[in-house]
C-alpha cells in the first residue's frame, strides 16, 4: 500500500511560490548622491504579471535596471529562485540572459528579421534548431503570420509595433526565467498594444513578468499584482482588482484620482 500523499496548505503553497520567485529586501540605489530607490521590499511569485505604476521619477525604470544588472551599485538583497543575483552563474551577462529587459523604444539590429530572433543563440544545438525556434518564438508574440513570408527582410522594414514584438521574441528565444518590460506599448497603435498585452498575459502563465506602465487602463487589463511606487518607495502592493476598487493608502487614492501624488 502506497504512503498517503502529503497535503500542502494554501499558505505553504503560496510561500513556496514566493520562495521560487523574486524576492527583494532593503533595496536602495543612489545616483550622484541622490536617492533613487529607498528600502524597496517586494516578493513576486514564480509566474504571473506584476505591473509597476506611479508618477514619472518614481524609480520604476531604475528598479528594472537593478534586477537586470544594468544598475549594479545598489545595496540590499535581490534573490531569484533562492539565488543571489550578484553571484549569478555567468555574472551579469548570464543574469541578463536569464532576466530579459525590453525598453519603451524597440531596438532592432541592422539585419534580417530571422537574424534578429536568433541573435542570442550560442550553442550549436540551438542554432541547428534555429528555424524551429524562430517560428515558435514569433508565434508566442503573435508575429509569425505577419512575417513568415519575409523572414530575410530587414528588421527595420517592420512597423514600430512589429519591431517591439520582434524585440520580445529575441529575448524569449534564449529561454529567460523572467521578463521585464519598461512601458512596452507607450508609442504604439491600439492594435499593436492589444497584441502585446495578449502576449504578456500568455507569457505570464509560464514565468514572472514585471511591466512598467503609465497607462492605468492597461494595468487593469493585465490584471495580476499591482505595485504603486512614488519617490523611490513602494507605497502599496496588492491584487489588481482590489487595488483599483479600494486602494488602502491615501497616496494611492490620490494617484488613481488625479494621476499625481504627494508622498513626502
Q: Any overview of this molecule?
A:
- The protein is 38% helix and 24% strand.
- It is of the alpha/beta class and 264 residues long.
- The protein has a domain at 23-106 and 178-258: Rossmann fold, CATH 3.40.50.300.
- A 6-stranded mixed beta sheet has the order 6-7-8-3-9-10, with helices on both faces. A 4-stranded antiparallel beta sheet has the order 2-1-4-5.
- It is globular, with a radius of gyration of 19 Å.
Q: Helices and strands in order, then pairings?
A:
Elements: H1 10-19, E1 22-31, E2 34-44, E3 48-53, H2 60-68, E4 74-80, E5 83-84, H3 91-98, E6 99-102, H4 113-117, H5 124-128, H6 130-140, H7 144-147, H8 160-172, E7 178-182, H9 190-203, E8 208-212, H10 216-222, E9 225-230, E10 233-239, H11 240-245, H12 250-258
Parallel strand pairs: 3-8, 3-9, 6-7, 7-8
Antiparallel strand pairs: 1-2, 1-4, 4-5, 9-10
Helix pairs in contact: 6-8, 8-9
